[in-house]
Amino acid sequence: MTSPLEQKIKITGPIVVTANRVSDGTVVYRREDGDWTTQLDQAAITADAATAREMVQAAIADDLRAVGSYIAPVTLTRDGGVRPGNLRERIRLAGPTIDFPGAARDPVQTGQQAAHVSLR
Amino acid sequence: MYLYDDLDRTLVAERVAEFRDQVARRLSGELTEDEFKPLRLMNGVYLQLHAYMLRTAIPYGTLSSAQMRMLAHVARRYDRGYGHFTTRQNIQYHWIKLAELPDAMADLAGVGMHGMQTSGNCVRNITTDQWAGVAPDEIEDPRVWAEIVRQHVTLHPEFSFLPRKFKIAVGASSGDRAALRVHDLALRLFRNGAGERGFEVMVGGGLGRTPFLAKTIKPFLPERDILSYVEAVLRTYNEFGRRDNIYKARIKILVHELGAEAFAQEVEAEWQNIKDGTLALDPGAFADIASRFHYPAYERLDDGPRELIGARRADRLFDAWVGNSVANHKVPGYAIVTLSLKPEGSTPGDATAEQMDAIADLADHYSFGEIRVGHEQNLVLPHVAQRDLLPLWRALDAIGVATPNVGLISDIISCPGLDYCSLANARSIPIAQEIARRFRDHNLARELGRLHINISGCINACGHHHVGHIGILGVEKNGDEFYQITLGGKADEDARLGTLLGPAVPYAQVADVIEDIAAAYVELRERPDELFIDTVRRTGIEPFKERVYAAR
Amino acid sequence: MPLVKAGRVVDDPYVRALDDAPIPDGVPVIVPAQRFLADASELVARSAPVGVLWPNDRRVAELEPWLGDVALIALVFPKFRDGRAYSQARLLRERYGFRGELRATGEVLRDQFQFLVRAGFDAFEVKKQIDARVFTEAAARFSVFYQPSADGRLPALRRRLQGGPAAKARETL
Fold first, then answer.
1. Per-residue pLDDT tens digits for B80-108
2. What ipTM was assigned to the predicted interfaces of this complex?
């Protein structure tokens, strides 16, 4: 997950073009018709470097609707689905891998001491 | 704390109006992202993985209860009900919509808060010791000086487009709780041999790709010269700092490439031109700013009141908390209370809107309405009467901010990492959570003593891993998350950069490695009260390295 | 690129002289730094005004001997994010007392107008037409300043010390 902001364009498999929506920063994917969608399975996919370059350049030029366009890998599943191709893209699609705050409480006063953890 | 007047508030309001206009021009397409980006950064607006992120400045880490309530309001109204306190005494909101930002900023402006210069190639939030004004070992409240400098560098017409970001820290005590030596510019107020007060000026510290500790370029600067000297440093940097390569653009590189002495001479030459001009600080100017700092009307109280002594004897858990989270205050009968934002399972530095509101109420009740934010990502109530510690503790525990782990192994400093940040290579928060889980037994954590773990999800080092006793840096190898471990860093007056322990370890092993390091420390220490960091200094990293990599 | 002076878009009386081309007589001309320095005494002896285009990576102290003779100095913002010319401008105005036209060239955008004015610029080759039209309003976005600068406006501290209703502190809620 080297930040794609530092990547050279290098296609080794299927990719999509992704960005953030200008108005609210939501993760979006470029569609075949040049529109943007939040649904990964509606994204235009290519494994061809020239097409990818065109797509991302067009996306970058679409500065009004989406910002920070780049090429992201995807994985195609056997049943014809498409999934994010690395952890960074999984996190962008599904959100942080941790709970939002509000779940944690340190149970000092309830008397529940955590189990003793011995050092190995 | 500093009270804004109409002039201060006007400036913030005008900034909000300007940003509202800039957002409108961005949304209409009149401004391209290229043109808009530096403008939004100068208001603290980043684009992150999932959304925009707003970084709101908390100047020198001081908040009023009213301001804390507003931070809660922004979290609720414009974000997802929580905020993240950072290693530079700011707060970040991770889920902001651009279109709503001007309104959020207008709300913040109502209590004198803003995101001005929390990003961009300008002077950033000026940080200081979270115990400023109440620490027994300080010679004067450094926040007055921080405010004097803050005003000078805010919307400064000459220095708003520097080669790169510029971070200033101010300290005024023998113990450095502000990590002075890792700042671009640090000002340490002290009394010299002749009893005169002045600043040691240090330049060129910084972490990231090429970490450096700051060098002293002016051993003693009289107080009156602070603004003209800062101006000379900034002007020298503006002129000579590299602009060809963003990884070489910080002042630390300039100081390194010129040499500290040559750099100091450049600054001195420029300074000689301006030192007796309009920037010389006259006593009237200082007094004006100082007069706007309001201090509590402390009662005349004794140390060690009966309520406290009795309660400590009666309640083991309360006693443990006092021993851990309560520090001596310069005024008798009072105490400095740290609120741990690192309960087990939490994200280090995060607080919910409900917690913020509750803390604001407790501040009103027990701390003269004042709260501090520390660079360790914990909060502080700086003016608590010792007789109030028991009821305060109960209230803090009820909202989950009384974990007695301040300064211990589970009080981890962590950047947001790949879960939030578009610059990250790896996640940091789950690593912090797993480590905290392994050491959730308070007896064990106390046994290990003071031990600072710092985690950064990428080389930009927002988690300050270089200066952690144990530093953890997330890197990427073939699409997987790996972590480099360093030992022996220090962020205090004896600042040091950590040493790499060995090859990076995979995600699943990091917590195991920390356990191995802790176990090695227990075996190696000469006495139970030899601090981890001192053991590392004494033995070097070899014994730890052996232990960690023996089976890996 | 529209030229803004005194808040209005105006025609530019100056002609840019390229490095080798002969300099036209009787016309205000802006000459690149290297060329100016090579022929300075002749150039300032002309009857028509002469201006210098000064790069942002060269110290303005070199111009000091001629500051009383040049009518205009043009400083450069290669990208608007490159802020070196702000320092140059302030030095020219505040340290060397330059009184002629100080012109901002390169990438000059609306959101820098007030900084530019405060740094001492009084003429602006503005990148966008729309920005040029709103110059006066954009250059007046802020009425409160914390630091003294080339525009001579009173910084907040001085206003406070002078007293008056604006200087009274108020609780922040």
1. 999 999 999 999 999 999 999 999 999 99
2. 0.92
Cβ-based contacts of C160 with chain B (< 8 Å) = 5, 7, 288
* Range(s) of the domain holding residue C10: 3-141
Q: Side chain identity at B169, as an amino acid letter?
A: A
What is the CATH classification number for the domain harbouring C29?
Answer: 3.20.20.70
Across the interface, which of B420, B422, B444 has its CB nearest the CB of A96? B420
Q: Is B165 on the interface with C (CB under 8 A)?
A: no
The number of distinct structural domains making up chain C is 1
Domains B6-109 and B134-291 belong to one CATH topology: no
Helix segments in C91-134, DSSP class H: 113-119, 129-133
Classify domain B134-291 at the CATH class level. Answer: alpha beta
Mean pLDDT computed over every residue of chain C: 89
Q: Check residue B274 and give its pLDDT.
A: 96
In the CATH scheme, what is the homologous superfamily, with its name and number, of domain B413-549?
Answer: Sulfite Reductase Hemoprotein, domain 1 (3.30.413.10)
Token couple for B26: 């961005």
* Mean of pLDDT values over A45-65: 94
- Which pLDDT belongs to residue B171? 96
Q: Does residue B439 sit at the A interface (CB-CB below 8 Å)? A: yes
Single out the residue of B229, B227, B235 nearest to residue B254, CA to CA: B235
Locus of tokens 């600042």: B495
Q: How far is B209 from chain C (nearest CA, A)?
A: 23
Q: Does B26 touch chain A (CB under 8 A)?
A: yes
CB contact under 8 A, B5 and C166: yes
Cβ of residue B160 closer than 8 Å to a chain C Cβ: yes
Residue C149 included in any domain: no
The pLDDT of A51-72, averaged and rounded, is 94
Q: Where are the domains of chain A?
A: 12-94
Could you say which DSSP state residue B490 is in? B
Q: Which of C84, C149, C166 sits opposite B239 (nearest CB)?
A: C84
* Averaged confidence pLDDT in chain B: 95
Q: Find chain A residues with C-beta within 8 A of B32's C-beta.
A: 63
Predicted pLDDT at A4 = 56
User: Does chain B reach chain C with at least 3 CB pairs under 8 Å?
Assistant: yes
Instruction: Name chain A contacts of B48, Cβ cutoff 8 Å.
Output: 25
CB contact under 8 A, C141 and B17: yes
Q: Please say whether the structural domain B306-398 has been given the CATH code 1.20.120.430.
A: no
Q: Does domain B6-109 have CATH number 3.40.1190.20?
A: no
How many A/B residue pairs have CB atoms within 8 Å?
138
Q: Phi and psi dihedrals of B457, rounded to 5? A: -85, -5
Q: Give the CA distances from residue C94 to residues B161, B267, C120, in Å, rounded to whole numbers and listed in that order.
A: 20, 18, 8
- Find the closest chain C residue to B240 by CA distance: C57
Which of the four pLDDT bands, split at 50, 70 and 90, describes residue C164?
Answer: low
Q: State the residue for tokens 């450049």.
A: B266
CA atoms of C54 and B404, how far apart (whole Å): 61
Mutation choice for A interface testing from B28, B101, B347 by most A CBs within 10 A: B347
Give first-to-last CA distance, chain C, whole Å.
47
**Distance between CA atoms of B493 and B490, rounded to whole angstroms?**
8
C133 inside domain:
yes
